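Task: sequence design from structure.
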């Protein structure tokens, strides 16, 4: 009994947490959240980001190519047997351990402005890569917005089909009662059975279409197909038809200065122009400066010091060698000091050898191209071809943008007219449908007339939903080319 009470108390203590976990709603995704997620996970966006990083590295390298380099070298050598002392350059039979140390640096002073133009080209390429990334992000954002609006459209179609099915079922029950009572013929019920099956089929089709549009969105987001994705569906009011749109030329002028694909093409042309200047720089002489510092150490590096005897050996005029009479006239000078002195040998320390053996040099080199087997000329020709290709691509991008803007503009105009016409059609059919429904309930209209009018009204409602979302999406596309954000 005590254990049962403890278990019951423990279960009751968990009730608030269980209730909270059951009542917790799944995350609802807004359009902006979907776009942000896609921009973070999309592979094409990541590849474009890598292109930007590569261009940043190239720009950094082009900048540092203009400054001097600095290299340090060190080596250690061991010599045995008869070898040359690197310190005295004399033969020796002693083992020798030596070290060499050097610093070297060089810098290009002038090379036909190739280094400067290469740096400017790398900056243009970096800006082009950034615009390319922005263009990729825009494409992904437009795709996500399209899939999102398609889901909203299909959801409304499903809701409309479900409402029609519910209405048909109610009508079917009423007619069934009247047929059983003999107030209506059996043919009316058979017609409603056919209509009920048609409406159920429409609901199934709408469910399948909605599921397919959700799958398309999941694939665009690179999520698994079984991911539960709940959308935060905003309240979308009936769009106002605006026939006072800006002209095509006005929209194109804005798009031409804001769309990244245009700006990317311009930067590519600028980079290829600099490429021609770089290739022409090879015609000019190249002036460079270099300098280095060298020192070394040897394990047998020594110095020799001569110390004479106290009594020098004199050489006097008319006296034999060895005479030392101070009374005799003459000049006392040392003769053959190696015969009356001694030599002291002492080693030189590592630091002293490094200091004593140091030497530096500075040199300037002028290289004048005389004949390069037409390599420079061919490089210039290739650079001009690349420039012409970039200019043609720029024109092509502008033409494509103009065509896209023109298409978007006339799509909006056509969608607005269609939406307006379908609205009028729905209003007219709604009145007819209301009238035929009243007549059918009173027995003044047969089921064939009722189903025909009702189906026409349902078809018009579906057309209105389709025209509504088509107009909204195409209007958003036109707003996008005017530099406006994607918002519902």
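Answer:
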């Amino acid at each position: 009994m005590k254990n049962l009470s403890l278990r019951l108390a423990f279960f009751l203590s968990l009730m608030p947490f269980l209730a909270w976990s059951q009542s917790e709603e799944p995350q609802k995704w807004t359009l902006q959240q979907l776009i942000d997620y896609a921009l973070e996970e999309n592979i094409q966006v990541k590849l474009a980001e890598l292109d930007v990083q590569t261009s940043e590295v190239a720009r950094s390298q082009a900048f540092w190519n203009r400054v001097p380099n600095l290299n340090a070298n060190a080596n250690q050598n061991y010599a045995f047997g008869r070898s040359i002392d690197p310190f005295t350059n004399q033969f020796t039979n002693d083992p020798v351990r030596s070290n060499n140390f050097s610093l070297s640096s060089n810098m290009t002073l002038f090379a036909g402005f190739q280094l400067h133009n290469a740096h400017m080209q790398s900056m243009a390429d970096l800006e082009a890569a950034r615009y390319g990334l922005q263009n990729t992000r825009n494409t992904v954002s437009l795709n996500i917005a399209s899939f999102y609006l398609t889901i909203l459209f299909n959801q409304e179609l499903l809701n409309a089909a479900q409402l029609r099915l519910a209405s048909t079922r109610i009508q079917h029950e009423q007619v069934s009662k009247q047929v059983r009572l003999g107030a209506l013929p059996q043919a009316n019920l058979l017609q409603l059975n056919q209509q009920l099956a048609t409406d159920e089929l429409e609901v199934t089709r709408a469910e399948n279409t909605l599921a397919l549009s959700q799958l398309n969105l999941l694939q665009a987001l690179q999520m698994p197909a079984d991911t539960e994705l709940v959308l935060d569906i905003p309240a979308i009011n009936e769009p106002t038809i605006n026939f006072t749109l800006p002209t095509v030329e006005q929209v194109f002028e804005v798009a031409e200065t804001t769309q990244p694909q245009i700006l990317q093409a311009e930067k590519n042309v600028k980079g290829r122009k600099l490429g021609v200047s770089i290739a022409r720089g090879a015609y000019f002489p190249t002036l460079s400066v270099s300098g280095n510092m060298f020192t070394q150490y040897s394990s047998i590096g020594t110095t020799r010091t001569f110390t004479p005897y106290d009594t020098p050996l004199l050489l006097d005029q008319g006296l034999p060698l060895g005479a030392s009479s101070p009374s005799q006239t003459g000049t006392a000078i040392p003769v053959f000091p190696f015969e009356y002195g001694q030599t002291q040998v002492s080693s030189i320390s590592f630091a002293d050898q490094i200091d004593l053996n140091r030497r530096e040099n500075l040199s300037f080199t002028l290289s004048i191209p005389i004949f390069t087997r037409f390599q420079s000329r061919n490089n210039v020709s290739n650079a001009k071809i690349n420039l012409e290709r970039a200019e043609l691509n720029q024109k092509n991008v502008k033409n494509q943008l103009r065509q896209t803007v023109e298409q978007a503009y006339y799509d909006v105009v056509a969608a607005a007219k269609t939406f307006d016409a379908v609205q009028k059609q729905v209003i007219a059919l709604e009145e007819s449908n209301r009238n035929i429904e009243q007549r059918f309930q009173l027995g003044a209209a047969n089921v064939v007339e009722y189903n025909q009018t009702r189906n026409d009204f349902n078809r018009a409602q579906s057309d209105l939903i389709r025209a509504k979302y088509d107009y909204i999406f195409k209007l958003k596309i036109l707003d996008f080319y005017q530099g406006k954000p994607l918002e519902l």
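Residues 303-347 form one domain.
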